[in-house]
Design brief:
binds zinc ion; seven-stranded mixed beta sheet; 17% helix; Immunoglobulin-like; 26% strand; Collagenase (Catalytic Domain); alpha/beta; single chain; elongated; six-stranded mixed beta sheet
């Protein structure tokens, strides 16, 4: 009995917890939703640009951290989330791009705001008028996100974002005038046991029925979004319908449609805006939000789907000191997102950066350990970008014997022997202070010089498209403390 009681209290506790968390999915007030509807009702029929083509809308990301802290939302996750956002808006004919760099703000009062007033102050002080202003914060007044009319921006909780999250699409739906599919039921717990007529006094606009008569004036005022009374987050079945039954004022039984971003269904259920919702957003953009239109913007695309690292190669062993990871330049890329980790899931991150160059330097790895690296090329239009095939590599152990016959274990040459027409990669510690690198014949005749080499971070040199006839050569490195020679074989 005691055990049973215990189980019961845990269950009750879980339910309370669940309810508490889920009721705070979105903090967009019904007052502001109504205001957006009222403002756009006069906009129908105004001149609209040609929406047969995709329209590009500038998104400005304000990334927040606490006072004096630099722990902003991670770039890898940010670009993945933006990729999902653009996928969510693809069928609407709307694509977001970054016209301005990410705006970093370190201020605890805004990053962790319990009160909407602080959030609105953040927006009013930082909004740029011709952008969709989005604020990535730790705590947007206890919600996953919200839009407010006064702040005219969206605040998003970093912990609610991610590749599989549609929170951003939902809040931008509000930004472009859309109310919830269950508009009017915010904060009301629906129960099938009660007669729906009993809710009439509480629900603060007309309750929507299954029957399509008057759907233009009921709830969200869209006829191609069905009735929905659920204002807590909810799970769905395989057809994205609510597991619970609902009944309307005529006692017609139905299940809410969780495929719509403007519902409160779980992220896994959501995949779309309806046609009328799309039209509502496009009307809003072409009228109240004309300032966001960029008819002359031409998106930049990267042509390749994927690429391979230049160095190290997958499953190879590298020196544990002074590692330079390199990859080829991707046409159309603006930044490279780089992650080096100790786990294949990229959970134990050693290096996490966004850079413009095609190489990154790691001073020291743990000898004998396994590492994983991944790189993604992105630009201001392509957030999912182009991936390098991820690699796994091993840091050389401290006791590794030098079996390749080279004089200096600090310098590695890869591959050796090397095939004519291939790339030769040489790595060496930064401390050597490399001054020159060249290849000589056995007789001492110089066949390449410094100009043929790309040198990265004073720790790695690559020679692309090696054009030497087969034979044995000497690779010669001039360093601060003398010359290091290595034998290489060209096949
Ligand atoms: Zn909402």
């Amino acid at each position: 009995m005691i055990v049973k009681m215990k189980f019961f209290s845990i269950l009750v506790l879980c339910l309370i917890q669940y309810n508490h968390l889920q009721s705070q999915y979105c903090g967009t007030s019904h007052v502001d939703q109504q205001r957006m509807i009222d403002l756009s009702s006069g906009e129908q029929g105004n001149s609209r640009p040609d929406f047969a083509q995709t329209i590009y809308i500038p998104l400005l990301i304000h990334s927040l951290s606490n006072d004096g802290s630099s722990s902003y939302y991670g770039n890898w996750q940010l670009y993945e989330t933006l990729g999902t956002l653009n996928k969510d808006f693809e069928k609407s004919g709307i694509q977001f791009f970054l016209e301005k760099p990410i705006h970093y703000i370190s201020r605890t009062k805004w990053n962790d705001h319990k009160d909407y007033n602080d959030g609105e102050e953040m927006m009013i002080e930082n909004n740029v008028a011709d952008q969709v202003n989005c604020y990535l914060v730790q705590n947007p007044a206890g919600n996953c996100g919200y839009y407010t009319y006064r702040g005219d921006g969206v605040a998003l909780s970093k912990s609610c974002l991610g590749k599989l999250s549609h929170t951003w699409a939902h809040e931008l739906g509000h930004f472009f005038s859309l109310p919830h599919t269950f508009f009017g039921w915010e904060g009301i717990d629906y129960s099938f046991q009660k007669s729906t007529a009993e809710y009439k006094a509480k629900v603060w606009n007309q309750i929507e029925n299954v029957e399509r008569i008057d759907c233009n004036s009921q709830a969200d005022q869209f006829c191609d979004t069905e009735p929905d009374y659920i204002s807590d987050r909810w799970p769905c079945d395989a057809n994205n319908r609510s597991l619970i039954n609902l009944k309307d004022l005529n006692d017609s039984i139905f299940n809410a449609d969780g495929s719509l971003f403007m519902s409160y269904a779980f992220d896994g259920c959501m995949s779309r805006f309806s046609n009328e919702q799309n039209n509502g957003m496009l009307n809003n953009i072409s009228n109240r939000r004309q300032i966001l239109l960029r008819p002359n913007v031409k998106p930049i695309y990267q042509n390749t789907d994927s690429f391979d690292f230049i160095y190290p190669l997958n499953e190879s062993t590298v020196p544990y000191k002074s590692l330079t990871i390199t990859w080829p330049k991707v046409e159309g890329a603006k930044y490279y997102l780089v992650q080096v980790a100790r786990a294949p899931s990229f959970s134990i991150i050693v290096k996490n950066e966004i850079i413009e160059s095609t190489s990154t330097y790691i001073d020291s790895l743990l000898p004998g350990k396994t590492y994983y690296a991944r790189v993604k090329a992105v630009n201001d239009f392509e957030f999912n970008g182009t991936y390098a095939h991820p690699i796994k590599f091993y840091a050389e152990g401290l006791q590794t014997s030098n079996s390749d016959g080279f004089a200096s274990p600090e310098v590695t040459v890869f591959p050796n022997p090397v095939t004519r027409g291939k790339n030769l990669i040489v790595t060496f510690p930064q401390e050597l202070g490399i001054q020159n690198i060249e290849i000589l014949t056995i007789a001492g005749q110089r066949v390449t010089d410094k100009l043929n080499w790309d040198i990265y971070n004073k720790s790695m040199a690559t020679l692309t498209d090696l054009q030497l006839s087969s034979g044995v050569y000497v690779l010669q490195l001039t360093t601060e403390s003398g010359i290091i020679a290595k034998r290489i074989v060209v096949e």
